[in-house]
Amino acid sequence: MNKKHIGVLAILFASVLWAIEPVFVKLSYRNSDFLQTSAIRAMVVTLTALVYAMLTSKDSFRINKKQLSILIYIAIAGTLFADLMYYFALTKVPVINAVLIGHMQPVFIILIGFLVLRSDRLTKFDYTGISFMLISGLLVTTKTPTNLAMLKLGTFGDILVLSATVAWATTAIAMRKYLKGMNTGVITFYRFLFASCVFAIYLISTSKISISNIYQVLLGIVAGVGTILYYEALKRIKAAQVGALELSTPFFAVILSFFVLGESVTIMQITGILLLFVGIYYLAKKEELS
């Protein structure tokens, strides 16, 4: 199995985990808030990444000043801002909306990557696949033909998730450009360690430094493994392809949110989700021909 196939499998498995994540978030909110849940989750992710890094590369924790600055940026933009916006939005929007918008990174990665990652030139297969996925996102967020005709594209919660998506896209570019040679467990460890320090101050100041429910721990493990797999994929395939393949997440999220949370979906949303697989087909086709 070549590195591209490993990269595709890694991001698809991460997508399954990220479909589980918002379900655990919703369940955690039954006796906790988004800040306390985010804080405990960040700490558990840090421990999960530490274990992975120790098992795969014990001597790789030393970082230079340039790597430190990039890791701090990823911690601020990716965890303290994007993750918090995403978790706050989950208090206002259904799982399917949050998950799909949150994984619409390819369009922003393409724009940023065009300016920063000159080596990540996309082909017609990439653009075709991503186009299908963007159409899919439009169908899922508008939900009904009436909303689509009126260009009723979403709510304030959807905008929050979109802002998180842009921030996540910048961290994907930063990781691929500057941290590609670093152990993925180490990247994840430092990203969430720095964020956990900030969260710890919040928890101590509000006397909330405790685990409210088992879902917060499970959330941290799922998010930690998902992030590590995401970075492993970024090492092996193009950033835009990683972002596009993430869009398989909504398919799994719909199933879980329906059976666990009782959230419903429309026919148009189901159609949109099916288009995701058309997009994945074109990306996979590109993988075979490259």
Structure in words:
By secondary structure, this protein is mainly α. The chain has one domain. Helices cover 79% and strands 0% of the residues. It contains 13 helices and no strands. It has helices spanning 3-28, 34-56, 65-89, 95-102, 106-116, 124-142, 145-149, 156-178, 184-205, 214-236, 239-245, 249-261, 267-289. Helix 1 (3-28) runs antiparallel to helix 10 (214-236). The longest helix is centred in the N-terminal third of the chain and has 26 residues, at 3-28. The protein is globular. The mean pLDDT is 82.
List keywords for this structure.
single chain, 290 residues, mainly alpha, 13 helices, globular
In short:
The chain is mostly helical.
Total number of domains: 1
The tally of strands reads: 0
Q: Summarize model confidence as the mean pLDDT.
A: 82
Class based on secondary structure composition and strand pairing: mainly alpha
Low-confidence stretches: none
Task: Describe how the helices and strands are arranged.
Blueprint: H1 3-28, H2 34-56, H3 65-89, H4 95-102, H5 106-116, H6 124-142, H7 145-149, H8 156-178, H9 184-205, H10 214-236, H11 239-245, H12 249-261, H13 267-289
